[in-house]
Write a structure and sequence with these properties.
- The protein is built from ten helices and 28 strands.
- It is of the alpha/beta class.
- The chain folds into four domains: 9-43 and 201-346, MoaB/Mog-like domain (Molybdenum Cofactor Biosythetic Enzyme, Chain A, 3-Layer(aba) Sandwich), CATH 3.40.980; 45-68 and 165-199, Molybdopterin biosynthesis moea protein, domain 2, CATH 3.90.105; 73-161, Molybdopterin biosynthesis moea protein, domain 3 (Molybdopterin biosynthesis moeA protein, domain 3); 355-427, Beta Barrel (Beta-clip), CATH 2.40.340.10.
- A six-stranded mixed beta sheet has the order 7-4-6-5-9-8.
- Helix 3 (28-36) packs parallel to helix 9 (327-346) and helix 6 packs parallel to helix 9 (327-346).
- Bound molecules: adenosine monophosphate and magnesium ion.
Length: 428
């Protein structure tokens, strides 16, 4: 009673609310930093056939075991020549050359060229000894059985790729941490590198908590909803090149969640608990995570919208995440925290996300000291530019994400963005 007299009831309500809010909220970069300080780069690698290595993370530096090309090749269809034989040639005063050979694809030439001689050659064909250039077929004219006119002079090296011009023996070609792309696989097999050492794929356990959740195959009873997050998370994990392991849905019950989380931690390299990450009586994730192993919860609460009730933890050397249940928050926080952690574990150096520049179509309000992610649709303008149109919707709506092409970030220190501002949109 004495307490009530000293505080207005409004203040009291405020005090009660505050005691249930997240304290020690960190900015997203600080939060990630705190987590990554506890996450070691892992060395585990495995050898896989190059043909199967798309999107895998190289676990070692690769240098070239050979020169490429291994022989001098023509880049055009035409005639291999000694460049000096064509010097001064013009349409009016062509150089006459004797065709002494035809270089077949996949074969060495039959003979070397002497002065005044040439050999028919196709793109990719091997240059004969003695030849140092190729006159393209359009700049020649056949006269008689085995003679051509070269209508233009070529310089030594013209229309020829030299041995090792693409890559030389010993050249560093791909660094450790590189995420292999289709062209990388092409380059590796061109050099005969048919197997590479890559980071082992990580197993990521997903535990979805919530009394209201049912599996998607099930018809939800009134008040129930289908589990979305297990599936969006699994898809993002796959995109990142790893292996999701769905534990299923669990009620908001400490023992049930704890058992599921512990089993997931045992069986996986990383664990994500979806939902229950806030501070109400039903929100058990922080407590569960803290009991899984040391050091436990490192961050609880991030100055982020959507995604404030995010938990970052390390338990017995494995990263554990408590992501907010709201499907949009869940995806945003995966991107901001889980994805970089998986990259750290594998040593992956990911290229920056693809962004486009667009003009904001309307004002966006935000609070300073908070990073906001706003879903936007991109619309082409008549002048060729793009408009970024915010797709507003209450944050629980998965279809706001489906209707959006990307997200834009309202930075921590901005109180909002004005219509007409040029913004960078990170594409999905
Ligand atoms: P919570 O993080 O537990 O407070 O949940 C926030 C909101 O997200 C609630 O409306 C939940 O019903 C919803 N939610 C929680 N988990 C999931 C899930 N796995 N799939 C879809 N929605 C969910
Ligand atoms: Mg919940």
């Amino acid at each position: 009673m004495r307490f009530a007299r000293r505080s207005s009831s409004a203040e009291l309500r405020g005090a009660v609310t505050t005691s249930r809010e997240l304290f020690n909220v960190r900015t997203p970069p600080q939060a990630l930093d705190v987590l990554l300080q506890h996450v070691p780069a892992r060395a585990d690698g495995e050898e896989v056939p190059t043909r199967d290595a798309l999107d895998r993370v190289l676990a070692e530096d690769v240098s070239s075991p050979a020169d490429l090309p291994t022989f001098r090749r023509s880049t055009m269809d035409g005639f291999a020549v000694r460049a000096a034989d064509t010097f001064g040639a013009t349409e009016g005063l062509p150089a006459y050359l004797e065709v002494v050979d035809e270089v077949l694809m996949g074969h060495a030439p039959n003979r070397a060229l002497g002065t005044g001689e040439c050999a028919r050659i196709a793109t990719g064909g091997m240059l004969p000894d003695g030849a140092d250039a190729v006159v393209i077929v359009e700049q020649t004219q056949e006269v008689g059985q085995a003679t051509i006119e070269a209508l233009r002079a070529v310089a030594p090296g013209e229309n020829v790729v030299q041995v090792g011009e693409d890559v030389r023996t010993g050249d560093p070609i791909l660094p450790r941490g590189h995420v292999l792309r289709p062209q990388d696989l092409g380059g590796l097999v061109a050099l005969g590198v048919t197997a590479v050492r890559v980071a082992r794929r990580l197993r990521v356990g997903i535990v979805s908590g919530g009394d209201e959740l049912v599996a998607p195959e099930q018809a939800p009873a009134p008040g129930q909803i289908r589990d979305i997050n297990s599936y969006t998370l699994a898809a993002m994990i796959r995109r990142d090149g790893h292996v999701p392991c769905l534990a299923g849905v669990f009620p908001d019950d400490y023992d049930a969640l704890e058992r599921a989380a512990r089993a997931a931690l045992e069986a996986n390299d990383v664990v994500i608990l979806s939902a229950g990450s806030s501070v109400s009586a039903r929100d058990m994730t922080a407590q569960v995570v803290d009991g899984l192993g040391k050091p436990g919860v490192l961050v609880h609460g991030v100055s982020l919208k959507p995604g404030k009730p995010t938990i970052l933890a390390v338990c017995s050397d494995k990263p554990v995440f408590g992501l907010p249940g709201n499907p949009v928050s869940c995806m945003v926080t995966y991107d901001l925290f889980v994805s970089p952690t998986l990259a750290r574990l594998t040593g992956a150096v990911r290229p920056p996300r693809r962004t486009v520049s667009a003009r904001l179509s309307r004002n966006i309000a935000s609070a300073t000291g908070r990073e906001d992610y706003v879903q936007v649709r991109l619309e082409g303008r008549a002048d060729g530019g793009l408009d970024a149109v915010p797709v507003f919707g209450k944050s629980n709506l998965i279809f706001t994400l489906i209707r959006a092409d990307g997200m834009l970030k309202v930075p921590l220190d901005a109180g909002g963005l004005a219509a007409g501002a040029q913004v960078e949109v990170v594409l999905f």
